[in-house]
């Protein structure tokens, strides 16, 4: 546990010791603001909820989460520090979890800094705070799922750009699987079981519930199992690097 | 402390390390020599538990590096090749991180950091970012990391690579001093380093151990080891050669240079030649200007052992 925390703290330190962290947070906040107010027509809707805020998160995370996670293992491979790390008394799982948690925590910080959104909507009306909380929870889980995917892609290559692109492609696939404009087209010719299968692995289906304030254990399980699966894959890839 | 048994590593069809066995005791400093690509780094990576062996066993302080990996890793300090360090940290931050991974927190951690900062002369750059360090400081920072927990076993992969002569000397002195109560393996290309710091050396070529002994033993295997080089005045090579031919213990003599009435020659003995030569010189009233018994050079041994067969000079 202490080891995981030591590694996580180093990773967090690495974020904040470079301007990247601040740039990222600023971009994230600007974009959420822009999408919520300009594209999501927050004011025109006249409803005291944060739907126009949460609905954009998958698209923002599509690019921002890979940007946060792409260096996690690529950097270790490029610098050769992986050899240092794994000859210390550290198990692969401690290292993987430490790095993952650090980035997840970083994303949480960025997400929590959107609190003025909540203040605004509370000032303007009487929003359902439980629904907002579950929205945040869903958003955080989705970020974790995307991050686990990025962890895996960054363990594949020493090149951060390659890791970024691979990760975006996989995340995009998971989004489009259950994105209505796509599923509406496919529904005309694809068999029903295929549609269901894709909807099952699509993040949109599972994220929607959280926005509506419904915490379904299946959605929870979905995001957690995506994380576990991709972190496990990461451990397999890391082992393959050393064989 | 370190026991390596029939260690083998294959990368696909390529045999990188081929069935090597050796052991290192406490108080020994083992020099690992060999041409590039001979399998030095691969062997060291297996000993530190980074690479799993294809066959064979390594145990460190009685713990198998595969079966009881964490226990053995706790007892090893490792300086990987090229001294990798996280580039986004300060020297102090990096050492602190390593100390904590080694289980040294708070006071114990600070004490350990102070100790290695002094040992590796890192005081001037303590708060500098690792990115901006010179190669020498980078190397020493990584070396500091390896000894931060005062390990019983030290594995150093080219610890003096890229250092200037003064720094090389410092690191060598450090290794020799630590070698008194640790088991140390270090690899190098620089043969004088082996003589300066090692109690024993192994030469490895194409994945196999081709020589194993003290530096003196290895030197004795040099093709010219034990030959006598003698410089004489007041004689010509013709007359000297005739007189030398009468000696009992001379195998072969060879002229190195001749000018005016000075002769320098190399004499290959087949017994106790030296007194005979001295006696002869006295009898013939040759003035001995210099006399030197060649100890053999590790360079020659290294070259003669590790060159491809076609170029191989005969050894002994």
Question: Strand fraction band of chain A?
Answer: under 5%
Strand-pairing-aware structural class of chain B: alpha/beta
Low-confidence stretches of chain A: none
Total discrete domains of chain B: 2
Which H/E pattern describes the elements of chain B? EEEHEEHEHHHEHEHEEHEHEEHEH
Biggest interface, CB < 8 A = A-B, 22 and 30 residues
Measured between the Cα atoms of the first and last residue of chain B, the distance is 33 Å
* Integer average pLDDT of chain A: 90
Structural class of chain A: mainly alpha
Helix content of chain A: over 70%
Distance from first to last alpha carbon of chain A: 27 Å
By DSSP, the count of extended strands of chain A is: 0
Q: Tell me the overall shape of chain B.
A: elongated
The radius of gyration of chain B is 25 Å
Architecture of the largest domain in chain B, CATH level 2?
Answer: 3-Layer(aba) Sandwich
Largest sheet of chain A: none
Share of helix of chain B, binned: 25-40%
The CATH topology label of the largest domain in chain B is Rossmann fold
Question: How much of the polypeptide of chain B forms β-strand, as a percent range?
Answer: 25-35%
